[in-house]
């Protein structure tokens, strides 16, 4: 299992940030790895909602089938995904009021099922995924000037 936990301060109220980040069909607007998500994921998704997403990360294009596991506006949102090869992703957003803004914590846990991908991840891919994740959060911060 690989874990990437990143934190940023965003100059917007937690409710505004939550409303954007829990709409997976809009992830491509700020996350460089997200290609597209199902149109019904344009709404802020509640626990139990399902959607699919295509991503391109570390040079690989993947299809993810997501289930939202937890939705507590505007504090927390968690979802899990499975890929065709059995690889899994767990994504958690935590939002806390911070003065007139939000402290946003994004935790990405993933486990690659194929031995070759696990080896590539250990050697190289996790660094690229971390860079992509950092760029995503920088883009998110820029959306709330």
Keywords:
145 residues; Alpha-D-Glucose-1,6-Bisphosphate, Chain A, domain 4; 7-stranded antiparallel beta sheet; 7 strands; globular
Write up what this structure looks like:
InterPro entries: Polyketide_cyclase/dehydratase, START-like_dom_sf. With 145 residues, this protein is an alpha+beta fold. The protein has one domain (2-142): START domain (Alpha-D-Glucose-1,6-Bisphosphate, Chain A, domain 4), CATH 3.30.530.20. It contains two helices and seven strands; from the N terminus they run βαββββββα. It has helices spanning 14-21, 115-142, and strands at 2-10, 34-37, 50-57, 60-72, 76-83, 88-98, 101-111. A seven-stranded antiparallel β-sheet has the order 1-7-6-5-4-3-2, covered by helices on one side. Strand 6 (88-98) and strand 7 form a beta hairpin. The longest helix is centred in the last third of the chain and has 28 residues, at 115-142. The chain is globular and about 45 Å long. 26% of the residues are buried. The model has no long low-confidence stretch (mean pLDDT 96).
List the helices and strands and how they pair.
Layout: E1 2-10, H1 14-21, E2 34-37, E3 50-57, E4 60-72, E5 76-83, E6 88-98, E7 101-111, H2 115-142
Antiparallel strand pairs: 1-7, 2-3, 3-4, 4-5, 5-6, 6-7
InterPro entries: Polyketide_cyclase/dehydratase, START-like_dom_sf
